[in-house]
Amino acid sequence: MAAIRASFLLAAAALLALWCSDHGGVVASDPSHLQDLCVADKASTVRVNGVACKDGEDVAAEDFFFSGLHMAGNTTNKQGSAVTAVNVAQVPGLNTLGISLARIDYALHGLNPPHTHPHATEILTVLEGSLYVGFVTSNPENKLFTKVINKGDVFVFPKGLVHFQFNYRTTDAVAIVALSSQNPGMITVANAVFGSKPSITDDILANAFQVEKTVVDQIQAKF
Ligand SMILES: *[C@@H]1O[C@H](CO)[C@@H](O)[C@H](O)[C@H]1NC(C)=O
């Protein structure tokens, strides 16, 4: 009797293990939607994780539409790059859908400086020119992955990791990126660290960067 019970338990455990390997533990995307659409109601004061839904009666095709990505962004700035974002702020129909888009323009030697998207993985394709791109991992700690990519090439920046793109060539470059969030978020490392409002005190940054406070003050003055 004991032997039968033991073999029954073993079989049950094996079945459970099989089921778990099939169904268990791995979640690679947001949970499924419970409705076709939830167009952002920008006027709503309801605070939810995302934006409250508009009344379905008020939804129109325009809520799912954006025009203008054929136009270059203005790269006349210190970095020589411009991001034209198309996320839930521009397209309310993206609310709850976990996806968005951007166009990035790079002047000669233009840089999209080291930054992270706290909410999104990014997949980039080069439409024009060439880019030197890279990201840094947390595990293995601070390992840099880089590549030169050309027209038609695709490169991925995993969610949350610090990454950059640099147009090292002597022609303009253009890229389109897709992001796995309606609201990817953007933290530019230098701006966050040296340009926060109010400032992080210079003794903290002097310690963090192992430089004199005067060096920190110089950098902070630029932001
Ligand atoms: C681009 O930005 C620069 C700097 O802000 C500005 O002077 C210039 O007028 C802008 N160009 C266009 C075409 O908007």
TrEMBL record:
Main location: secreted
Subcellular location: Secreted, Extracellular space, Apoplast
Entry keywords, A to Z: Apoplast, Disulfide bond, Manganese, Metal-binding, Secreted, Signal
Keyword hit for Transcription: no
Binding, oxalate: 112, 117, 122
Family from the record: Belongs to the germin family.
Protein name: Germin-like protein
Species whose genome carries this gene: Oryza nivara
